[in-house]
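Researcher: Batch entry, complex prediction.
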Amino acid sequence: MQVKIISAAALAVVLALPAHGAGLSIAGGIGRVKSVTGTAMVYRAGQKLPVYPGLVLEKGDSLATSKGGRVGITFSDNSRFAAGPNSRISITDYSFDDTSHVGTFTAVVTKGAVAIVSGYIAKSAVDAMKVRTPGALLGVRGTYFVVDVK
Amino acid sequence: MKQAALFTLLLLSTGCARTNVTVFSGENGDIGSVAVLDPKSGADIAILNHPNQQVRVNNAHSVVAKSSSVKALNTRYASLLADIPEPPKLFVLYFREGSTGLIDQSSALVPEVFEEVRRRPGADVQIVGHTDTVGDGTANDELSRQRAAIVQTLLVSMGLKPDIVRATGRGERDPLEPTGDDVASVFNRRVEVFVK
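Model: C-alpha coordinates for the complex:
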Protein backbone atom coordinates (compact mmCIF):
# COMPACT_ATOMS: atom_id res chain seq x y z
CA MET A 1 0.00 0.00 0.00
CA GLN A 2 2.78 2.35 0.94
CA VAL A 3 4.32 1.90 -2.46
CA LYS A 4 1.10 2.91 -4.17
CA ILE A 5 0.84 6.09 -2.10
CA ILE A 6 4.42 7.08 -2.92
CA SER A 7 3.85 6.27 -6.56
CA ALA A 8 0.85 8.56 -6.81
CA ALA A 9 2.65 11.49 -5.21
CA ALA A 10 5.81 10.99 -7.23
CA LEU A 11 3.88 10.49 -10.44
CA ALA A 12 2.47 13.99 -10.05
CA VAL A 13 6.05 15.27 -9.92
CA VAL A 14 6.96 13.25 -13.00
CA LEU A 15 4.03 14.68 -14.92
CA ALA A 16 5.01 18.21 -13.94
CA LEU A 17 8.47 17.80 -15.45
CA PRO A 18 9.34 18.23 -19.13
CA ALA A 19 8.91 15.03 -21.12
CA HIS A 20 12.61 14.76 -22.01
CA GLY A 21 13.42 14.21 -18.33
CA ALA A 22 12.55 10.54 -18.19
CA GLY A 23 15.07 8.07 -19.53
CA LEU A 24 18.08 10.39 -19.42
CA SER A 25 20.86 10.58 -16.84
CA ILE A 26 19.79 13.84 -15.31
CA ALA A 27 20.77 13.25 -11.69
CA GLY A 28 23.75 15.59 -12.01
CA GLY A 29 26.11 16.97 -9.43
CA ILE A 30 28.87 15.23 -7.52
CA GLY A 31 26.98 14.11 -4.44
CA ARG A 32 24.04 14.65 -2.15
CA VAL A 33 23.55 15.80 1.39
CA LYS A 34 22.02 12.97 3.42
CA SER A 35 21.72 14.45 6.88
CA VAL A 36 21.84 17.84 8.57
CA THR A 37 21.85 18.68 12.27
CA GLY A 38 21.87 22.34 13.33
CA THR A 39 22.90 25.01 10.85
CA ALA A 40 25.03 24.56 7.74
CA MET A 41 25.55 26.53 4.52
CA VAL A 42 27.00 25.86 1.10
CA TYR A 43 28.86 28.67 -0.67
CA ARG A 44 28.57 28.36 -4.44
CA ALA A 45 29.67 30.99 -6.98
CA GLY A 46 29.23 33.83 -4.48
CA GLN A 47 25.86 32.54 -3.29
CA LYS A 48 25.00 31.16 0.12
CA LEU A 49 22.63 28.18 0.04
CA PRO A 50 20.88 26.50 2.96
CA VAL A 51 21.78 22.83 3.38
CA TYR A 52 19.02 20.19 3.51
CA PRO A 53 18.86 16.43 2.94
CA GLY A 54 18.79 15.88 -0.82
CA LEU A 55 20.76 19.03 -1.72
CA VAL A 56 22.86 18.25 -4.81
CA LEU A 57 26.49 19.32 -4.42
CA GLU A 58 28.67 20.63 -7.24
CA LYS A 59 32.40 20.77 -7.81
CA GLY A 60 33.75 23.95 -6.19
CA ASP A 61 31.18 23.99 -3.39
CA SER A 62 32.33 25.07 0.03
CA LEU A 63 30.47 23.71 3.07
CA ALA A 64 30.41 25.56 6.38
CA THR A 65 28.85 24.19 9.56
CA SER A 66 28.04 26.38 12.56
CA LYS A 67 28.58 25.57 16.20
CA GLY A 68 26.53 22.40 16.68
CA GLY A 69 26.12 21.96 12.91
CA ARG A 70 26.77 18.52 11.39
CA VAL A 71 26.34 17.27 7.83
CA GLY A 72 26.49 13.83 6.16
CA ILE A 73 27.23 13.58 2.42
CA THR A 74 27.38 10.68 -0.06
CA PHE A 75 29.30 11.36 -3.29
CA SER A 76 28.65 9.80 -6.71
CA ASP A 77 31.69 7.50 -6.33
CA ASN A 78 30.22 6.24 -3.01
CA SER A 79 32.68 8.23 -0.89
CA ARG A 80 30.97 9.35 2.29
CA PHE A 81 31.74 12.37 4.50
CA ALA A 82 30.58 13.48 7.92
CA ALA A 83 31.44 17.10 8.76
CA GLY A 84 31.54 18.08 12.41
CA PRO A 85 30.67 21.42 14.04
CA ASN A 86 32.54 24.62 13.09
CA SER A 87 33.98 23.04 9.98
CA ARG A 88 34.82 24.38 6.56
CA ILE A 89 35.30 21.98 3.66
CA SER A 90 35.69 22.78 -0.03
CA ILE A 91 35.53 20.30 -2.87
CA THR A 92 38.07 21.95 -5.16
CA ASP A 93 38.39 19.07 -7.61
CA TYR A 94 36.03 16.24 -8.50
CA SER A 95 35.73 14.12 -11.60
CA PHE A 96 34.30 10.62 -11.86
CA ASP A 97 33.62 8.46 -14.89
CA ASP A 98 30.93 6.06 -13.74
CA THR A 99 31.64 3.60 -16.56
CA SER A 100 35.39 3.20 -15.94
CA HIS A 101 35.27 4.21 -12.24
CA VAL A 102 38.30 6.45 -12.79
CA GLY A 103 38.38 9.91 -11.24
CA THR A 104 40.04 12.59 -9.11
CA PHE A 105 38.90 14.10 -5.84
CA THR A 106 40.41 16.91 -3.77
CA ALA A 107 38.79 18.11 -0.55
CA VAL A 108 40.24 21.07 1.34
CA VAL A 109 39.53 21.14 5.08
CA THR A 110 40.42 24.60 6.38
CA LYS A 111 38.96 24.09 9.83
CA GLY A 112 37.04 21.60 11.92
CA ALA A 113 36.78 17.85 11.55
CA VAL A 114 35.61 15.49 8.85
CA ALA A 115 35.23 11.70 8.87
CA ILE A 116 35.75 10.12 5.46
CA VAL A 117 34.98 6.71 4.00
CA SER A 118 36.60 6.65 0.58
CA GLY A 119 34.89 5.28 -2.52
CA TYR A 120 35.73 4.23 -6.07
CA ILE A 121 37.94 7.24 -6.91
CA ALA A 122 40.48 6.38 -4.18
CA LYS A 123 40.70 2.86 -5.61
CA SER A 124 41.18 4.03 -9.22
CA ALA A 125 44.82 5.19 -8.84
CA VAL A 126 47.29 5.96 -6.05
CA ASP A 127 46.47 9.35 -4.55
CA ALA A 128 43.62 10.02 -6.99
CA MET A 129 41.82 11.24 -3.85
CA LYS A 130 43.53 13.90 -1.76
CA VAL A 131 42.71 15.89 1.33
CA ARG A 132 44.44 19.20 1.91
CA THR A 133 44.56 21.14 5.17
CA PRO A 134 46.47 24.31 6.10
CA GLY A 135 49.50 22.19 7.13
CA ALA A 136 49.06 18.82 5.46
CA LEU A 137 48.49 17.05 2.16
CA LEU A 138 47.02 13.55 2.48
CA GLY A 139 46.79 10.80 -0.13
CA VAL A 140 43.73 8.64 0.47
CA ARG A 141 44.32 4.99 -0.44
CA GLY A 142 41.02 3.38 0.36
CA THR A 143 40.08 3.77 4.00
CA TYR A 144 38.04 5.11 6.87
CA PHE A 145 39.63 8.05 8.69
CA VAL A 146 39.19 11.37 10.45
CA VAL A 147 40.93 14.66 9.61
CA ASP A 148 40.83 17.12 12.49
CA VAL A 149 42.22 20.64 12.00
CA LYS A 150 43.02 22.39 15.27
CA MET B 1 32.84 36.71 3.58
CA LYS B 2 35.98 38.80 2.93
CA GLN B 3 37.05 38.28 6.49
CA ALA B 4 36.50 34.56 6.24
CA ALA B 5 38.53 34.42 3.02
CA LEU B 6 41.34 36.41 4.61
CA PHE B 7 41.32 34.13 7.65
CA THR B 8 41.57 31.09 5.40
CA LEU B 9 44.44 32.66 3.48
CA LEU B 10 46.29 33.42 6.71
CA LEU B 11 45.91 29.84 7.92
CA LEU B 12 47.13 28.45 4.63
CA SER B 13 50.11 30.80 4.37
CA THR B 14 51.35 30.50 7.94
CA GLY B 15 50.60 26.78 8.30
CA CYS B 16 50.06 27.35 12.00
CA ALA B 17 47.12 24.98 12.23
CA ARG B 18 47.76 21.41 13.25
CA THR B 19 46.11 18.47 11.56
CA ASN B 20 45.34 15.28 13.44
CA VAL B 21 44.77 12.28 11.18
CA THR B 22 43.28 9.08 12.62
CA VAL B 23 42.63 5.84 10.73
CA PHE B 24 39.88 3.48 11.87
CA SER B 25 39.10 -0.04 10.76
CA GLY B 26 36.46 -0.03 8.04
CA GLU B 27 32.86 -1.14 8.28
CA ASN B 28 33.83 -4.58 6.96
CA GLY B 29 36.87 -4.76 9.21
CA ASP B 30 39.14 -3.91 6.27
CA ILE B 31 41.86 -1.34 6.63
CA GLY B 32 43.36 0.71 3.81
CA SER B 33 45.82 3.50 4.28
CA VAL B 34 46.25 7.25 4.30
CA ALA B 35 49.59 8.78 3.34
CA VAL B 36 50.94 12.10 4.55
CA LEU B 37 52.51 13.59 1.44
CA ASP B 38 55.13 16.23 0.79
CA PRO B 39 53.02 19.08 -0.65
CA LYS B 40 55.77 19.96 -3.13
CA SER B 41 56.96 16.60 -4.45
CA GLY B 42 53.95 14.39 -3.57
CA ALA B 43 56.34 11.86 -1.99
CA ASP B 44 55.25 9.82 1.04
CA ILE B 45 56.29 11.25 4.41
CA ALA B 46 54.29 8.88 6.59
CA ILE B 47 51.74 6.12 6.05
CA LEU B 48 48.90 5.28 8.42
CA ASN B 49 47.66 1.74 7.93
CA HIS B 50 46.77 0.37 11.38
CA PRO B 51 43.39 0.75 13.09
CA ASN B 52 43.33 3.66 15.54
CA GLN B 53 46.71 4.91 14.33
CA GLN B 54 47.01 8.66 14.74
CA VAL B 55 49.51 11.33 13.72
CA ARG B 56 49.70 15.06 14.21
CA VAL B 57 50.93 16.94 11.15
CA ASN B 58 52.40 20.32 12.06
CA ASN B 59 53.84 20.77 8.57
CA ALA B 60 55.65 18.68 5.97
CA HIS B 61 58.76 18.59 8.17
CA SER B 62 57.02 17.72 11.41
CA VAL B 63 54.78 14.65 11.52
CA VAL B 64 54.43 13.25 15.04
CA ALA B 65 52.95 9.86 15.99
CA LYS B 66 50.32 10.14 18.70
CA SER B 67 49.25 7.41 21.09
CA SER B 68 45.69 8.12 22.12
CA SER B 69 43.84 5.20 23.68
CA VAL B 70 41.13 3.54 21.61
CA LYS B 71 38.65 4.63 24.25
CA ALA B 72 39.75 8.26 24.01
CA LEU B 73 39.51 8.21 20.21
CA ASN B 74 36.06 6.65 20.32
CA THR B 75 34.89 9.24 22.82
CA ARG B 76 36.29 12.13 20.81
CA TYR B 77 35.01 11.00 17.42
CA ALA B 78 31.93 8.87 18.23
CA SER B 79 29.34 11.44 17.12
CA LEU B 80 31.35 12.36 14.01
CA LEU B 81 31.67 8.71 12.94
CA ALA B 82 27.97 8.16 13.64
CA ASP B 83 27.14 10.95 11.18
CA ILE B 84 28.72 9.15 8.23
CA PRO B 85 25.81 8.27 5.92
CA GLU B 86 25.00 4.57 5.80
CA PRO B 87 26.49 2.66 2.85
CA PRO B 88 24.42 2.41 -0.32
CA LYS B 89 22.06 -0.57 -0.39
CA LEU B 90 22.40 -2.84 -3.40
CA PHE B 91 19.59 -4.62 -5.24
CA VAL B 92 20.53 -6.92 -8.15
CA LEU B 93 17.97 -7.49 -10.90
CA TYR B 94 18.32 -10.26 -13.49
CA PHE B 95 16.91 -10.50 -17.01
CA ARG B 96 15.23 -13.29 -18.89
CA GLU B 97 17.51 -14.71 -21.54
CA GLY B 98 17.33 -12.81 -24.81
CA SER B 99 14.81 -10.42 -23.31
CA THR B 100 14.67 -7.02 -21.66
CA GLY B 101 12.10 -8.37 -19.21
CA LEU B 102 13.03 -8.98 -15.60
CA ILE B 103 12.74 -12.48 -14.17
CA ASP B 104 9.84 -12.83 -11.71
CA GLN B 105 12.03 -12.91 -8.59
CA SER B 106 13.61 -9.62 -9.67
CA SER B 107 10.25 -7.96 -10.39
CA ALA B 108 9.25 -8.90 -6.87
CA LEU B 109 12.22 -6.91 -5.52
CA VAL B 110 11.13 -3.61 -7.04
CA PRO B 111 8.76 -2.61 -4.18
CA GLU B 112 11.70 -3.08 -1.80
CA VAL B 113 13.68 -0.54 -3.83
CA PHE B 114 10.87 1.98 -3.32
CA GLU B 115 10.70 1.26 0.40
CA GLU B 116 14.46 1.82 0.72
CA VAL B 117 14.22 5.15 -1.14
CA ARG B 118 11.35 6.24 1.11
CA ARG B 119 13.30 5.30 4.24
CA ARG B 120 16.41 7.32 3.37
CA PRO B 121 16.39 11.11 3.65
CA GLY B 122 17.80 12.81 0.54
CA ALA B 123 17.93 9.47 -1.28
CA ASP B 124 19.25 9.02 -4.79
CA VAL B 125 19.46 5.92 -6.96
CA GLN B 126 22.27 4.76 -9.20
CA ILE B 127 21.42 2.09 -11.76
CA VAL B 128 24.35 0.19 -13.25
CA GLY B 129 23.91 -2.18 -16.19
CA HIS B 130 26.20 -5.15 -16.89
CA THR B 131 26.57 -7.80 -19.59
CA ASP B 132 28.22 -11.19 -19.96
CA THR B 133 31.25 -11.51 -22.26
CA VAL B 134 29.36 -12.59 -25.41
CA GLY B 135 29.99 -10.00 -28.14
CA ASP B 136 32.61 -7.24 -28.27
CA GLY B 137 33.34 -4.75 -25.49
CA THR B 138 31.95 -1.67 -27.22
CA ALA B 139 28.66 -3.38 -28.05
CA ASN B 140 28.42 -4.60 -24.47
CA ASP B 141 28.97 -1.06 -23.14
CA GLU B 142 25.94 -0.01 -25.17
CA LEU B 143 23.88 -3.07 -24.15
CA SER B 144 24.66 -2.49 -20.48
CA ARG B 145 23.52 1.14 -20.80
CA GLN B 146 20.30 -0.01 -22.47
CA ARG B 147 19.60 -2.48 -19.63
CA ALA B 148 20.17 0.25 -17.05
CA ALA B 149 17.93 2.64 -19.01
CA ILE B 150 15.13 0.06 -19.11
CA VAL B 151 15.21 -0.31 -15.32
CA GLN B 152 15.39 3.47 -14.95
CA THR B 153 12.32 3.92 -17.15
CA LEU B 154 10.49 1.22 -15.18
CA LEU B 155 11.26 2.79 -11.79
CA VAL B 156 10.35 6.28 -13.01
CA SER B 157 7.10 5.03 -14.58
CA MET B 158 6.25 3.49 -11.20
CA GLY B 159 6.78 6.82 -9.49
CA LEU B 160 10.43 7.40 -8.64
CA LYS B 161 11.36 11.06 -9.17
CA PRO B 162 13.49 11.29 -12.35
CA ASP B 163 15.88 13.81 -10.83
CA ILE B 164 17.13 11.34 -8.22
CA VAL B 165 17.83 8.51 -10.67
CA ARG B 166 21.02 8.08 -12.67
CA ALA B 167 21.65 5.21 -15.08
CA THR B 168 25.00 4.04 -16.45
CA GLY B 169 26.50 0.94 -17.99
CA ARG B 170 29.76 -0.83 -17.22
CA GLY B 171 29.67 -3.31 -20.08
CA GLU B 172 31.47 -6.58 -19.36
CA ARG B 173 34.08 -5.00 -16.99
CA ASP B 174 32.62 -6.14 -13.72
CA PRO B 175 31.23 -9.68 -13.93
CA LEU B 176 29.54 -11.26 -10.93
CA GLU B 177 30.70 -14.65 -12.25
CA PRO B 178 34.21 -14.37 -13.74
CA THR B 179 34.38 -16.12 -17.13
CA GLY B 180 36.55 -16.19 -20.23
CA ASP B 181 35.61 -14.14 -23.31
CA ASP B 182 32.45 -15.01 -25.27
CA VAL B 183 30.83 -16.94 -22.42
CA ALA B 184 27.11 -16.58 -21.73
CA SER B 185 26.27 -16.14 -18.05
CA VAL B 186 22.87 -15.51 -16.50
CA PHE B 187 24.61 -14.07 -13.43
CA ASN B 188 26.41 -11.43 -15.46
CA ARG B 189 23.33 -10.25 -17.41
CA ARG B 190 22.22 -8.01 -14.61
CA VAL B 191 21.43 -4.52 -13.43
CA GLU B 192 22.57 -3.26 -10.05
CA VAL B 193 20.41 -0.69 -8.28
CA PHE B 194 22.24 1.24 -5.56
CA VAL B 195 19.99 3.19 -3.21
CA LYS B 196 22.12 5.88 -1.58
